[in-house]
Each structure stands twice: as structure tokens, then as C-alpha cells.
Specification:
The protein is mainly beta and 584 residues long. It is built from five helices and 39 strands. The strands form ten sheets. The protein has a four-stranded antiparallel β-sheet with strand order 1-20-19-18. A hairpin with a 6-residue loop joins strand 33 and strand 34. The relative contact order is 0.06.
Length: 584
């Protein structure tokens, strides 16, 4: 290849690369979003980058309305459709425009000249009910006045609304000029009195503010000395002290046309904007992005029923310099949370009467802004229904007519138990201690302390309780029979279990039993034997005072001679210290 050929090849390669880079920087959306006959104006993109709402005159006769388009399974925009519930409110000469979707996708803000408004143009909002947008509602006079208010943009945390207001002036170049204002949401959820943003935001001729997902970066259109056309796009960042940085001219976008109405994806990588009557998209260079963001979409649901739950999520970064992120979750349970790439967050829910507090984590340390992260948050109910089924200990046959009692260990209150098809149902609260007892005719009773925990929420809550048939040589261990250390006097709490034995003996008059007491191996063998004999007799004496005839009972002490388990731990020793009865 000669020098001339080499040079032409190099030149062609450079031109090719330039055209490729330009195509990557700025690209018209083309059909079906952009229409060759009509104008597309003020695009607003949802946080997940899958829905776009824009203003257009494609209805004809000079009427401006709101349309929406969504991405299909091939990630392509579908033919736009009108938002009927909003457009139908307007009359033939009404203008509806400046749409802005909230970052959670549940509220649509816009301005319109509807009849009955406070001024030339007023700001309205509509909510998504799961299938359609609601009838628009206006804002109060803290935002809307007799002047022109338009192009609203609400921060991702839902606490700030930016919009324009007519500054009653026109420049010599005939540009319609406005000023940018902000209203803050109050503790009572109302919007406060709007305030005009200071310089260097408002200088002379501003338009169409958009607050980005980080709640700090503001992109707006302005006519300024360093501009290259009419309206150009600028970007400013709000510092920790509330001041705004000197706006930067977004030179990678701006042309001799009016470049305005920016909408940036929640991830912060793509910008959609209006120029020359159409909607364009552009990849935002890294140097214009202070933070890289990633969106997490999901649903808050009941861990058991999988039904949606309305609540509020709070995400606190492990970096103390980052602001907490508050996300409202409506009755549909859907949420979108925007996190900073590289950060880690602790996520909690607002207190709910029927659910345990949620404490989870969102780790974005290895996330990428292009990730589509989906995560459901499952809340565990405070109360769960537990079921109890009685079985024959030997045959495993289901026992009829179960008698079940459940008592709150703290309040001593008996809970309501409903029996359905030989299964006892009772509602218990996670983390509470209960005392459970069950029996049926011809069988021994079963009793235990029971404390449901969060693990039980994800288990089969049907508990199968084996009962021993009342026949010769059956041995049943009594629960919660306690004595003072080294003594044979029964503690008062032993009465609950012993009274169950009284009821069993009263209901089975022919039964005779041996009451046996056992110890661990601590201390002298002979002393342990004598102590166990005294304890067995103390139990018999108690039963006698309750009306059980003495000739139906034998007291027997075994000391440490019949351990259930090796006496090698404190837990095992406690198991060996026990009182039992055996049917003779």
C-alpha cells in the first residue's frame, strides 16, 4: 500500500469512527415514538427505563395531549397510546403537557390549562391504580397561582417538587423565559410554599427542570451567554450546605436548535430529551456523572400469603455521608429503590401492627448501573395459625376428639382453640412463650412449653403430637415439676402439670400408677436416692390433697440409677432430673 492509499485508508477509518461515536452520543428514537408529521415533546422515562410518557400534538387540530409507550420483550418501544383518563378532561383548546413520572412509577405530574384552574397553566397529578391513571387532581395555592406553572419534576425521595413559573418577561430573541421554583413536602404530606431557586440556577431565562435520581443533580434548559443555540441544557449539583454549583453546559448534547426537556434514566446512564420536534436519546459521559446509580425493583409481600403490603422502606447507607432513602410502598406492594453503585445499605420497614420489623441489606458494592435487579421483601406476620394433630404413639393413627389447651405463659390467659376435622387450630404470636397441653379419651396427656419463632413461618405448622395409650407399663414424663435445689418441697409452678395428672386419674378411675423421681449424678449416691424418694412422695401427697386415693399410687425414688442420657453436660443433667408416672 503506497502513502496516498495509506492516508486515505486512515482518513476513512477516522471518519467511520467519528460517525460511530456520534451515533453513540445522539440518536433519534425514530418510529413509532417519533412521528414524521407531528411533534414529540417533554419525554419522561420511568425508573426501570421501560415506560415513557411524553407530550405530543398527534391528536391533530393543534391539541397537545399526553401519550405513553412501553418497551416490549425485545426491548423496543411500542406504538404510543393516549392517556385517555387525563386527555379526556381537556377541552379542544386546552394544552396538556410537561409530564413527569415519579421514580416509583405511581404518580404522574403534568401541567394543563383545564377549566377551573387558578392561572394560565396549573400543575396536576394522577396516580396509577394498577390498570390505569386516575382522574387528575390539582395542587393547592402553595404551588399553583394566577401565573403560569408548568413542567413539574419530583425528586426520587418524593420530598421536593421543581417546576417553572412565568417571570413575566420575554427576551429580545423572543424566547419565552421562566424561573425555576421548588416546593418541599411537609410532615403532614402537604406541599409547602414554593421558593424561587437562587443564582446560579435562576439567572434570566430558564425552563423545564429535572431533578435526577440522586436528589441532587438538576438538569434544566436555559438561554445563557455560553450557549450554542437558543435553549441549551445545563447541569448543576446541590452541595451538602444546600447551595447549587455553577451550571455546566452539556456540550455533548447542545446544538443550534432548542435543546430542552431532559429526562434521565434512574441509573443515570441515558438521557432522553427534545430537539427539532423529536425525542432523542444520548449516552451520558462519565465526567458529567457524579454518581452511578442502580435501580432495584420489587414487591413487599406477606411471607405466608404472598399478598402485597403497603409500608415505607428506609435505606441507610453504611457511608454516613449519604442521605437516607425513603420509599413509599402503596397497596400494590410495588417499589423502585435507587441506590448508589458501590454502596451498601441497611433496609428497614416502618412499624406495622400485624408484621414483625424487617431488617435487611442491599449490597451494591459489585452492582453495575446496567443491572436489572429485582428483589422481593417478605414480611413475617406477628401472628400465625398453628395446627395440632394427636396421634397414637405406637400405631400413628389419628386420634379423634382432641382436647387442646394453649395458655399465654406471661398473662396466664387461655387462647381460643378451634377444632376442625380432628385438627386443633390456634393463633400464636411469634416470640411469645406458651404452655401447650393435649389429651384425648383413653390416652395420656402431652404438655410442653412452646415459643414460636420466625423459622416457624416457613415450616409446616402442622404439629403431630404422639400420645401413649393408657395401658400397663406405659411411662409418661411430667413436665415442669420443680423443687428447690437439694430439697423435696414442690415449687408452686409444678401445680399446672400435676393438675393435668389429677384430671387424667379422675377420668380413668381404674388406673393405678407409680410416681417415680430421678436425679442426676451430682453428690452422694445414697443421698440422691433418699432425695428422689422424698420428691416422689411429695408428688403423691399433692395428688392426695386433690382427691386421688392413696391406694391408687405408689411413690418410688430411683436416685441416679436410671439416667435418660449421660450426665456429661448441664443440659443432660437437667433432663435426668425428672418425675414420671407409670401405669401399673
Amino acid at each position: 500500500m503506497n502513502r496516498l492509499s495509506s492516508f486515505l485508508f486512515f482518513l476513512a477509518l477516522c471518519l467511520y469512527n467519528t460517525s460511530v461515536n456520534f451515533a453513540q452520543v445522539r440518536r433519534s428514537l425514530g418510529p413509532p415514538v417519533n412521528h414524521p408529521t407531528f411533534n414529540e415533546y417533554a419525554p419522561s422515562i420511568s425508573a426501570n427505563n421501560k415506560t415513557m410518557i411524553f407530550e405530543t400534538d398527534r391528536a391533530g387540530e393543534g391539541k397537545w395531549e399526553l401519550y405513553y409507550t412501553t418497551k416490549n420483550e425485545k426491548n423496543r418501544w411500542t406504538p404510543p397510546k393516549p392517556i385517555v383518563n387525563i386527555n379526556k378532561i381537556g377541552k379542544d383548546n386546552d394544552l396538556i403537557g410537561g409530564p413527569s413520572i415519579s421514580y416509583d412509577g405511581k404518580t404522574l405530574f403534568f401541567f394543563a390549562s383545564f377549566e377551573g384552574g387558578q392561572g394560565d397553566m396549573d400543575i396536576y397529578h394522577s396516580t396509577w391504580n394498577g390498570t390505569d391513571w386516575s382522574e387528575p387532581k390539582t395542587f393547592g395555592n402553595n404551588i399553583n397561582t394566577k401565573a403560569y406553572e408548568g413542567f413539574p419534576s419530583v425528586s426520587a425521595d418524593g420530598k421536593s417538587m421543581y417546576f417553572i413559573r412565568d417571570n413575566f418577561s420575554k427576551r429580545k430573541d423572543k424566547a419565552l423565559c421562566y424561573t425555576i421554583w421548588v416546593s418541599k413536602k411537609q410532615d403532614d404530606e402537604t406541599w409547602g410554599v414554593a421558593e424561587k431557586l437562587p443564582a446560579p440556577i435562576n439567572m434570566d431565562c430558564e425552563k423545564a427542570p429535572r431533578i435526577m435520581a440522586d436528589n441532587r443533580t438538576l438538569i434544566f434548559s436555559s438561554v445563557r451567554k455560553d450557549g450554542v443555540g437558543g435553549f441549551d441544557l445545563y447541569q448543576s449539583f446541590q452541595e451538602d450546605d444546600g447551595s447549587w454549583s455553577t451550571p455546566i453546559n452539556l456540550e455533548y448534547i447542545n446544538t443550534e436548535e432548542d435543546d430542552q426537556f431532559a429526562s434521565v434514566s434512574a441509573a443515570g446512564d441515558l438521557m432522553y430529551y427534545h430537539t427539532a420536534g423529536d425525542i432523542y436519546t444520548v449516552t451520558i459521559p462519565d465526567k458529567y456523572r457524579k454518581y452511578k446509580l442502580v435501580t432495584v425493583d420489587g414487591k413487599v409481600i406477606d411471607a405466608i400469603t404472598k399478598q402485597p403490603i403497603a409500608t415505607k422502606l428506609t435505606s441507610k447507607s453504611t457511608n454516613p455521608k449519604e442521605r437516607a432513602i425513603n420509599t413509599v410502598v402503596d397497596a400494590n406492594g410495588l417499589f423502585s429503590m435507587i441506590y448508589r453503585v458501590g454502596s451498601k445499605y441497611d433496609v428497614t420497614t416502618s412499624p406495622l401492627a400485624d408484621y414483625l420489623p424487617y431488617r435487611g441489606k442491599m449490597d451494591m458494592s459489585t452492582a453495575k448501573e446496567t443491572d436489572n435487579i429485582e428483589k422481593n421483601i417478605e414480611l413475617i406476620p406477628k401472628k400465625l395459625v398453628f395446627q395440632f394433630q394427636l396421634l397414637d404413639k405406637d400405631t400413628k393413627a389419628i386420634l379423634k376428639d382432641p382436647k387442646v389447651k394453649v395458655m399465654d405463659a406471661e398473662t396466664k390467659q387461655l387462647l381460643e382453640v378451634k377444632v376442625d376435622k380432628d385438627i386443633a387450630n390456634v393463633t400464636l404470636e411469634i416470640g411469645k412463650l406458651y404452655k401447650f397441653a393435649a389429651n384425648t379419651l383413653g390416652y395420656s396427656f402431652f404438655s410442653r412449653s412452646f415459643k414460636p419463632d420466625t423459622v416457624d413461618a416457613f415450616k409446616d405448622r402442622l404439629k403431630k403430637i404422639p400420645l401413649a395409650v393408657l395401658k400397663k407399663d406405659v411411662v409418661v414424663q411430667l413436665q415442669d415439676i420443680t423443687f428447690e435445689t437439694g430439697k423435696a418441697e414442690l415449687k408452686p409452678e409444678s401445680g399446672e402439670e400435676l393438675d393435668r395428672l389429677v384430671a387424667l386419674l379422675d377420668g380413668n378411675k381404674t388406673i393405678k400408677v407409680e410416681i417415680s423421681a430421678h436425679t442426676d449424678d451430682v453428690g452422694n449416691d445414697d443421698a440422691n436416692l433418699k432425695l428422689s424418694e422424698k420428691r416422689a412422695k411429695a408428688v403423691v401427697d399433692y395428688l392426695t390433697t386433690k382427691g386421688i386415693k392413696a391406694d391408687r399410687m405408689i411413690a418410688k425414688g430411683y436416685g441416679e440409677t436410671q439416667p435418660l442420657v449421660p450426665n456429661d453436660t448441664d443440659e443432660n443433667k437437667a433432663k435426668n432430673r425428672r418425675v414420671q408416672f407409670k401405669i401399673n
